[in-house]
Design brief:
Shape: globular
Bound molecules: zinc ion
Radius of gyration: 20 Å
Strand content: 15-25%
Number of strands: 11
Low-confidence stretches: none
Order of helices and strands: EEEEHHEHEHEEHEHHHHHEE
Distance between the termini: 33 Å
Number of helices: 10
Largest sheet: 7 strands, mixed
């Protein structure tokens, strides 16, 4: 970690400030050491350059989710800045790069750190990524060259950071927690009055077939299989998917029809095989996945006293929500 991260950190137990006792350095990074809370009762290690601010035992479903996604991000650890910028701007629409400029930004559930890179490149004053899983090691490796990008290992439900970020986002994460509404409330609670909250979640609309056909297989079988087996399955399924895009979707669309899922298929084609493979793999390994109807996303924002958020139906399969907290 860089010392510039310290002012953003809080004890996950008592929310007090932390002080830094560094042990070893590499360049600007404290690689090992300890963080001690002002109350004097809680201490946390820094290892591999990442503060490990975990203090509470995880329920079994969160532990399972964390293990599987940690593995996923280690497997698909590639960085493709241009593609990720394009993808990110769809998920946080209508936000623009200028909305990140000189802002303090929180990425709740940062995975391999791809959006930390994007926010830092958009000129964020600082962007702090928190993730529960061992993906933080990948995120640290992927962002250690960026002066204003930071990575912390922590639990959304005991978030170890300050509560007055200018902008907080959570992309593709809330629906994998045991309580998406509560996770959204945490996100909103870590933004200052007048600040911006953005989230992207799987939608319920158009995804009934996943809930009825894929979910039972995912929950009962594939989320429990060894990673190698799921990787092989994902290659097979992604190949079939791309064959059907080329042999069915494109010809049918050329004839002027718009088949079910056409927007999403076009998106996957633009995204390319490797990224789609990652998406398919994630759909097979997630022990917990909620598909959220528009009305529920609206309720989350209303509960956080955010009026008139912009909700966008992204590719007709998911919801992007962005809103401003009322000024104090
Ligand atoms: Zn403490």
């Amino acid at each position: 970690m860089r010392e510039g991260l310290l002012p953003y950190l809080r004890c996950p137990v008592c929310q007090e400030r932390l002080s830094l006792a560094p042990d070893t350095h590499e360049g600007p990074h404290v690689m090992t050491g300890r963080l001690l809370c002002a109350a004097g009762q809680h201490a946390f290690p820094i290892s591999g350059g990442v503060p490990r601010l975990l203090a509470h035992p995880l329920p079994p479903d969160m532990e399972h989710t964390s293990r599987n996604f940690g593995q996923s991000w280690r497997l698909w650890n590639q960085i493709d800045d241009e593609r990720y910028r394009w993808q990110f701007l769809r998920w946080v629409q209508p936000l623009q790069p200028a909305d990140f400029s000189d802002r303090s930004v929180l990425d709740m559930g940062c995975g391999k750190g791809r959006h930390l890179r994007v926010a830092a490149q958009f000129g964020a004053r600082d962007v702090v990524g928190v993730d529960l899983s061992e993906a933080v090691d990948v995120a640290f490796a992927n962002t250690r060259d960026l002066e204003h990008a930071h990575v912390v290992q922590g639990d959304i439900f005991h978030l170890p950071v300050v509560s007055d970020f200018d902008l907080a986002f959570s992309i593709g994460v809330l629906h994998h927690t045991p309580d998406p509404a509560q996770a959204f409330a945490v996100l909103a609670n870590h933004v200052r009055p007048g600040g911006t909250v953005a989230c992207w979640v799987y939608g319920r609309e158009n995804n009934g077939w996943i809930i009825h056909a894929v979910d039972p297989v995912r929950i009962g079988i594939t989320s429990r299989l060894p990673s190698k087996v799921v990787q092989a399955l994902s290659y097979g399924l992604t190949s079939v998917l791309f064959a059907s895009i080329g042999c069915v979707y494109q010809p049918v669309e050329k004839l002027g029809f718009k088949p079910f899922y056409a927007d999403y298929m076009k998106y996957l084609r633009d995204l390319g095989f490797a990224e789609t493979l990652n998406i398919v793999y994630d759909h097979l390994i997630a022990p917990t996945a909620a598909y959220v109807p528009r009305a529920e996303v609206e309720r989350w924002f209303a509960t956080a006293a955010i009026d008139a958020p912009t909700l966008t139906w992204v590719q007709k399969v998911s919801w992007a929500g962005v809103g401003k907290k009322p000024a104090a």
